[in-house]
Design goal:
This protein is mainly α. It has one domain (4-260). Helices cover 79% and strands 0% of the residues. The chain has helices at residues 4-23, 27-37, 42-52, 54-63, 73-95, 99-117, 119-125, 141-159, 164-174, 180-205, 210-233, 236-260. The longest helix has 26 residues, at 180-205. The radius of gyration is 17 Å and the shape is globular.
């Protein structure tokens, strides 16, 4: 049994992580860091974080239920690729250490955040006309490219996961999805698929700290629903700015961890 102070810390981390994941992503870095802070081993903290954040992601998905259509092909691409990549990532984590992937995390986060922050300029360089609404639906090779990229993101998500939401938002932006409520809804579908299949593998293998999971889960549900509500009601430029700030903060923390470990 964990001390009361540790349980309070984990509950607050779950609340913050749930809100972050519903807006942009990166919440697993908070819960992962909180569990490391109270002495849980890195691999166990990583697997337990994935399990604990599944209910929060489901809460976010419920909040975004009106923003995503079951007929949207992007929904099924993100969900299918999420299951495939999430299973691969979970398998790799259970079979190896996470040192190599941890070293890649800051660079992946940095690139994804810059990509999202300057997506308008990059699309202009590529000849895309600026618009306030969604671009024409992705089709053909663009759908296959999104599926392939999502498998890579999902593998990363099943293995470590911090910041995978930003990677998905960047991919969706370049697939023509400009409406942030729809993008966040689709991203949440992908996150649920990734975390659910990875969590199933971790539970089956027995690599879960259930006391920590219980402390985080309640806060993650409240944070996930509340964060999704904020993201849907707030001005889109404000949400875009929040996503970039979250990405930059997570990137800086990741680089700091890389340099000090």
């Amino acid at each position: 049994m964990l001390p009361l102070g540790h349980l309070v810390l984990l509950s607050f981390a779950g609340l913050l992580a749930g809100a972050m994941n519903s807006i942009a992503g990166g919440g697993s870095l908070v819960t992962f860091g909180a569990m490391l802070a109270i002495g849980i081993s890195p691999t166990l903290a990583n697997t337990s974080s994935s399990v604990a954040l599944v209910p929060g992601a489901l809460g976010s998905l419920y909040a975004y239920r009106r923003d995503v259509s079951r007929k949207d092909p992007l929904l099924w691409i993100l969900a299918g690729a999420g299951v495939v990549g999430g299973a691969i990532g979970a398998f790799l984590l259970l079979r190896s250490g996470d040192d190599l992937f941890a070293r890649l995390v800051p660079w992946l986060l940095c690139g994804a955040t810059l990509l999202f922050a300057f997506q308008g300029r990059v699309q202009k360089w590529l000849g895309a006309k600026p618009t306030d609404g969604d671009l024409p639906p992705a089709a053909g090779w663009r759908l296959w490219a999104l599926f392939a990229f999502q498998v890579v993101v999902a593998t990363y998500g099943g293995y470590f996961g911090a910041g995978m939401g930003i990677l998905m938002l960047s991919a969706l932006a370049f697939s023509g999805v400009r409406n942030l409520s729809r993008a966040n809804g689709l991203k949440t579908v992908g996150a649920v698929a990734i975390n659910s299949i990875a969590a199933a593998g971790f539970i089956w293998s027995g690599h879960v700290h259930w006391t920590a999971v219980g402390a985080i889960t309640g806060g993650a549900i409240l944070g996930g629903f509340g964060g999704a509500f904020f993201a849907r009601k707030a001005p889109q430029q404000m949400v875009r700015s929040a996503i970039v700030v979250v990405g930059l903060v997570i990137t800086l923390i990741s680089f700091w961890r890389l340099l000090t470990h």
